Amino acid sequence: MHELSHRHRMLVLAICCMSLLIVSLDNTVLNVALPEMRREFDASVAGLQWTIDAYTLGMASLLMLAGSTADRIGRRKVFLAGLVTFTAGSLLCSLAPTLGWLIAFRVVQAVGAAMLNPVAMSIITNTFTEPAQRARAIGVWGAVAGISMAAGPLIGGLLVDSIGWRSIFWVNLPIGLAALVLTLRYVPESRAERPRRPDPVGQLLIMALLGSLTYGIIEAPAAGPTSPLIVGCALTAVAALAGLLVYEPRREDPLIDLRFFRSAPFSGANVIAICTFAALTGFLFLNTLYLQEVRGLDALHAGLFMVPLAAPTLFFAPLSGRLVATRGPRLPLVVAGVAMGGSGLMFAVLSAETSTPLLLTGYVLFGVGFGMVNSPVTNTALSGMPRSQAGVAAAIASTSRQTGGALGVAVIGAVLAAGLARGGDFSTAARPGWWIITLCGAAVLGLGLLTSGRWARETAARTAAELEPKDSPEPAAGRRPA
């Protein structure tokens, strides 16, 4: 790819961030619409979980396929296909006549979204080749991701209360079409110098693992943990994981190169992403239901209550990007872990939801933590990886985010449903969920400290040297050419 001007690179970054905006927004914007959808469709808690997890699970299952395919056939081609599919899926969601159709159309959205997130990150990685510039670009990317996800409930509340829940999906249409036109005009084509062969067996194993695990968790409260259905899901998940661990290392071009995980920063970043997004989606799921079902707020006022969550994210996400570029990932990860864990602890121990000042303080703390975590996770996951595998590395990081999001709703929703089924009030039923969020924050803190020191950097350097194609002059992402 020929050298682009600074202005052209900024345009490419802006286009990629437009796609991220709508994809990330749809992770959380639907939360405040859940009570209205529950009334319109007469849905159960499990049905509400599926409107969210159909999207996150679909993305998680397909992200690595999309990333490797883009590296092989062309990132611009796959990015364009993703914009078309996501925009069409958004239109279909706005027209869904039943809950079942809405869930199905959310899967269509997920297919398009899977072609956008990792591919956009791969485009950014190959556009910004100088390490400091790349760190700043990733900081902007992380800021957009954090802001859009944290602002989702506020935007959703405004739309649901003024127009209706279907308008949530209309927002994607003009942004998706604008990004499509701009991509055709400004985004250059790029691909890996050595195309990687498809891995259909690996893809099926990933889908079986994530699908059976999430389905089993969501349906366990209703079916019973020892029912044949749930036991079958557990056995399928274990078999699929074992299959991946045995099959993938034997392939020359695996869908998941397990050598990536020999890098402690890379492994840590992905586990942190799972914990962070599990905490976020669980946090939003519990709070939006509480504010509307228990406090009786409408969607608009429930969204406004979330402003103290979105506002710190707006400030701290770009600050985190600058800190990562100048001081490395450790400080942002420590702040993120302490803030997110502290927020969960306030709800678990102090029942913060029952006191408005404590509730808003908990929101501020969580917003600070979530704002700080995205940039170090993304930068660390890509740092040191060969640019020829940037799509795959970015896809694994994105898969971790979406897997965490799906598991957060599945696990915390299942815990809530089980507590309500036993006849407890909402606060009592939600308390185990708040402890799970607290543990997620503690994991972010511990892993952030463990995987950002000298030992961790040495494992990253060894892994980068092992992964670097011997016949390719490409420098690894995040490393200067010799």
UniProtKB/TrEMBL annotation:
Region of interest called Disordered, as start-end residue ranges on this chain: 462-482
GO cellular-component term (any): plasma membrane
Entry's Gene Ontology molecular function annotations: transmembrane transporter activity
Pfam families: MFS_1
Domain Major facilitator superfamily (MFS) profile: 12-460
Record's compositionally biased regions (Basic and acidic residues): 462-473
Keywords: Antibiotic resistance, Cell membrane, Membrane, Transmembrane, Transmembrane helix, Transport
Bilayer topology annotation: Multi-pass membrane protein
SUPFAM superfamilies from the UniProt entry: MFS general substrate transporter
PANTHER family reported in the protein's UniProt record: MAJOR FACILITATOR SUPERFAMILY MULTIDRUG TRANSPORTER MFSC
Protein family (similarity comment): Belongs to the major facilitator superfamily. EmrB family.
Descriptive protein name: MFS transporter
Species of the source: Streptomyces venezuelae
